[in-house]
Specification:
The chain is mainly α. Helices cover about 75% and strands about 0% of the residues. Helix 1 packs across helix 3 and helix 2 packs across helix 3. The termini are far apart. The mean pLDDT is about 90.
């Protein structure tokens, strides 16, 4: 029981991010806001940002183990696939493999790359000192 309780805080960011993504994807198509000419960019940017944050949340759960970048990315893409399936049941929405593979997967990949490029190196420098 003690071991289980020790991992709960590590899961919280991922669970919270998944809940937010689920809430947004549960909105019926006619209830979604329109951003006029920017609609495509705002919504696809939202996909990239949301799944980028989710990948970083998974990476946090994995204790920032550099060998686990691929697993954090894969978990984010897997959740994206289940979320797109969920959208097939929401009025006015539909699943899109392009959202999963391009926008969600790419957002997760970019976030993990940015982390490894900028913040991951700083953590390594601190550990070496």
């Amino acid at each position: 029981m003690k071991k289980f309780l020790s991992i709960v805080p590590r899961w919280f960011p991922a669970l919270f991010t998944m809940a937010v993504i689920f809430a947004f994807s549960s909105q019926p198509g006619d209830k979604l806001p329109s951003f006029r000419g920017w609609d495509y960019f705002v919504k696809k940017g939202g996909h990239m940002t949301g799944y980028g944050l989710l990948a970083l949340s998974y990476f946090h759960f994995l204790k920032y183990n550099r060998k686990q970048y691929w697993l954090a990315w894969l978990m984010a893409v897997a959740y994206a696939a289940t979320d797109e399936f969920h959208q097939s049941f929401v009025s006015g929405r539909g699943p899109s493999i392009f959202d999963v593979l391009i926008f969600d997967g790419l957002g997760a990949l970019i976030a993990l790359w940015l982390y490894s490029r900028f913040w991951g190196q700083k953590k390594e420098e601190i550990r070496e000192k």
